[in-house]
Hints:
Chain A is mostly beta strands. Chain A is built from no helices and 11 strands. In chain B, the strands form 2 sheets. In chain B, strands 2, 4, 5, 6, 9, 10 and 11 form a 7-stranded mixed beta sheet that branches. In chain B, strands 1-3-8-7 form a 4-stranded antiparallel beta sheet, with no helix packed on it.
Amino acid sequence: SQQGEEDPQALSIQEGENATMNCSYKTSINNLQWYRQNSGRGLVHLILIRSNEREKHSGRLRVTLDTSKKSSSLLITASRAADTASYFCATDDGEGAQKLVFGQGTRLTINP
Amino acid sequence: NAGVMQNPRHLVRRRGQEARLRCSPMKGHSHVYWYRQLPEEGLKFMVYLQKENIIDESGMPKERFSAEFPKEGPSILRIQQVVRGDSAAYFCASSLDRGVREQYFGPGTRLTVT
């Protein structure tokens, strides 16, 4: 069954604005990761947040994790055209397995 | 340090043929994962391997699909007697050690079955 679900499915904003994407999951997790996928390309790892962390920053990225609500958000500040991509959250399955469970992704379009 | 390498990048097969997808993990990584992505969807886990061992194949279809990661050489995902529904992007990822740490993904192989 689907573990992570991103919201919204698609987001279109103007360059320079902030973009916020949300992810919800169902089971207990050890960590949550965000990935970016440019059209037709592989996934690029953006950030990992552990279950005992509430917030993490990396450059223009800010990730929050609320384990009580089983949700995470990815904020991209001062967006650029190059941020246009699909963004996926991925979690472990909560049972100690090594596999990542991905959501459907949010398609982000930055308009110049 | 080269990233995860996959080849071929694009593969076209007719129904009934075999597809072989190769993945070389990042240097020093001994854990390999295969995922499949259908159009407009997220990635779905298929199989997790370490050198010479299949650790978790819970996401792999029971028939026609197999995977290996030999002592020497790349990991291979093999699909026998391909059908149109096998058309997808297949991604390989590798990680440094046990534990769900960052997995680094290759560029993928796009399989088209005609």
